[in-house]
Amino acid sequence: MKVGIDLIHFATADFYLGLDTFAAEKGTELDKYTIGIGQEKMSIAPPDEDVVSLAAKATAPILEQIDRNQISAVMFATETGVDQSKSAGVFLHGLLKLSKHCRVIELKHACYSGAAGIQMATAMVKANPKEKILVIAADIAKYDVDTSGEATQGCGAVAMLITENPRVIEIEPGSGYFTDDVMDFWRPNHRTTALVDGKYSAKVYLNSLKQTWDHFTEQTGRTFDGIDYFCYHIPFTKMAEKAHKTLVKKVGAKLDKAKFDTQTLPGQIYNRIVGNSYSASLFISFISLLDNVKDDLQGKRVSFFSYGSGCVAEFFTGIMQANYQSVLMAESHQHQIAKRQALSYQQYLDFYHNTDDEQENTVYANHNSGPFRLAAIEGYKRIYENTDEME
Ligand code: CAA
Fold first, then answer.
1. Residue 233 CB less than 6 A away from ligand 1
2. How many domains does the chain have?
3. Bridge partners (DSSP) listed for residue 5
4. What is the CATH number of the domain that holds 336?
5. Quick one: CA dihedral 168, 292, 278, 357, positive or negative?
6. Which domain covers residue 104, as residue numbers?
7. Does 29 contact ligand 1 (Cβ within 6 A)?
8. Catalytic site residue 233?
């Protein structure tokens, strides 16, 4: 039985901070960002945007194409959860009017949990082919101002419908996985921003890639030459380049630059201008590949390397399906990216400092063009609205 991603769509915020603006503010050479870390822009969420509104925007176009009452489970992967108890997915469930006969759960492990969601959902569909499961990966990457991580912020959400006979990609059985209890990036409960040991985190990422690769080949017998395109977790695109170089060296592959670029660059185009989106970034890389490779990918094998600091990692693959192009939503992705408004550094700081969700009562000014937005907090309860329903 084939199981995998039937539909996939992503959403990002309406604003961005250019790394040119950022470099001018910090008195740093722009090349450090565009060449050194390989980033140009970071999507910035205004105060009335959070992972729930981003996830709703990512999911709504999928629901327009199916009977939403058939969704049997929602797995909401995030490390930017909005409540210590209630799953972000249940806010989403209400906002999108999903069936009451639907299980909802939030999954957390830094940037890894979206991959865990895909593996779990795939197994559930194999056990019961009637299941139609929404796996959502959504995060807002936020670091302290004036730290090394500040240039690697961003935000985004990816919604994926997991079904049998998928129209986009079949997720192949077997994968390589790896866990190690390390402190490279973490966020204690009282903090809204992550703490990170930046250089160490890059080393742990690359070590995890080598470990998952070994486990993947042992488990599946698949080889480097059998993979056509490589999608990586992308905190910044230079990390994906380093990852692929590490893998190429490890397997002793002889690749010219053109082949190296073909295997990895299409899966970096969106990430370069969206920034880090933690759990969503691997799947934004996949969408970037789908939207930007004009050749027919039918039958091609795509690999996914998911890395979540702390750390849990997984390497798995999928096979592209016939006529997948007919269900892609490239226009929506490109429109959202293109319509974002540039922020000055001061406007970015105003958003940055005005996202205090700890107030008992807050009414959020209308920045997010919707249709889904965080409208208010009343008695510590989050109030979301669908502006389309208010017209
Ligand atoms: N022209 C060209 N290149 C330049 C340059 C210039 N003018 N100036 C600097 N560079 C290069 C540097 O040589 C360096 O390249 P290498 O990494 O190849 O050595 C690169 O630009 C970055 O420069 P620095 O090392 O000086 O930058 P930094 O220390 O200020 O910050 C960072 C780099 C540590 C990665 C920082 O961005 C950070 O802490 N980011 C957050 C953590 C992170 O994303 N880690 C990734 C792995 S963990 C993970 O993936 C999970 C997750 O999502 C967080």
1. yes
2. 1
3. 162, 169
4. 3.40.47.10
5. negative
6. 3-390
7. yes
8. yes
